[in-house]
Design a protein that fits this description.
globular; 27% strand; 5 helices; alpha+beta
Length: 222
Amino acid sequence: MTSFPRSPYILKCGIVLLDPTSFRMLRTIALQYNPDQLSRTLQVQSAGGDGGGRSEPLRFKGPPVETFKIEAEIDATDQLEHASAYGGSGDATKVGIFPQLCALEALITPASSALARAERFLLAGSLEIAPAEAPLALFVWSRQRVVPVRVTEFSAVEEAFDTELNPIRARVTLGLRTLSVNDLPFGHRGAALFMAYLKNKETLAARAIAGSLSALGLTELP
């Protein structure tokens, strides 16, 4: 699946993982192919709620809950072509796309070291063991959309395999939920990233061309 050499460079979408304490960058996962579509849902957080609240019909109790859903394709074809040019070396010829699948699955799986450490604390008689803290994940879809998220859904359909049953083509569906200042305290790195994301959306909204009453068939408001 090689591209035309003179085709324009296209940015990749992906996920950046930050250490939950120091916030240093741990890993960048760039999807092999950009998904054909990005589904977004925003659930309004109104003060009155859906059931009423006539005294506060125009008040918000926080930013909307934004969710994303994408379907990523992973294919070993490019890697196999590259490996064949160098005598068949490379992971794709040995384990297929297992590394890419496992890197995505790690987004929702505690590290084995964290599970082993929790077990040691339990055996040592610790009364309370805090759940393992996952890295802070940033969903990146262009420079305009860099937002902290939590993975809420993961499913994979493996569609083709090599002679040793290593998957060589798969479709992965990811559901992501934005982490806002309702989820993270001000002062947290993730909250700062969300605020930057929100301010950028406000800047972009200000660039939209304003309409007019005449376009709506009105000369003035009733």
